[in-house]
Amino acid sequence: MQNPPNAIRRGVSLVELMVVLAIIGLMLGMLLPAVQVVRERAREAVCKNNLHQLNMAIANFAETHKKLPAEPVADHVSGWTVEILPFLEQRNRFEKLPVGRTLSSVPEAFRRPPAIFRCPRRTSLDEWNNAEQTNAHYAFVPTRGRKSYYV
Fold first, then answer.
1. d(CA 83, CA 112)
2. Mind listing the pLDDT tens digit for each residue in 116-145?
3. 120 in Cβ contact with 51 (< 8 Å)
4. CA 13, 14, 18, 24 torsion: positive or negative?
5. Distance of alpha carbon 33 from its chain centroid, rounded?
6. Which of 130, 148, 127, 134 is nearest to 58 (CA)?
7. What are phi and psi of 102, to 5 degrees?
8. Which residue has the higher pLDDT, 24 or 123?
9. Four-residue CA torsion sign, 133, 134, 139, 140
10. CB neighbours of 2 closer than 8 A, spacing ≥ 6?
11. What is the C-alpha separation between 91 and 137, in angstroms, rounded?
12. Global confidence as pTM
């Protein structure tokens, strides 16, 4: 039995299906770079916020102690990253840290600094794991005479 000439066709041809899939593929291809840009901007915002928090913590440390944080001693738990922990709402971590001990004698849990010291845009440094050094991404640089600083 043949279909009448003015019968409604209810199926989808292979060509129509391929055209729809191609359009969806093109739309996704245009959308993914935009998503990556948004993710990168979010990482940048987190990095800038970390820097702001670090600057505020160092300023609060300087205001409280009337001096800038000390420079780190090589191969020892010390330095500005340790001294400003209470000003970053990390007092519990600060109190548990064995300040002054050598890095090799410190448990593994204390070798990795809090997330605020790592910029999410620099993921390659997160993969670098040297037991002799902490891998903070930011550097505290006091200016001449240590009366001011920048991070």
1. 15
2. 888 887 764 455 444 344 456 677 777 666
3. no
4. positive
5. 20
6. 148
7. -70, 150
8. 24
9. negative
10. none
11. 21
12. 0.65
DSSP 8-class letter at 6: T
Q: How many CB atoms lie within 10 A of CB 96?
A: 10
* pLDDT tens-place string over residues 66-106: 988 888 888 888 888 888 989 998 888 888 888 778 877 87
User: In the beta sheet, which residues pair with residue 76?
Assistant: 102
**74-to-33, 67, 115 alpha-carbon distances in Å:** 43, 21, 22
Q: How far apart are the first and last CA of the chain?
A: 83
Structure tokens at 81: 């990253």
How many CB atoms within 10 Å of residue 46? 16
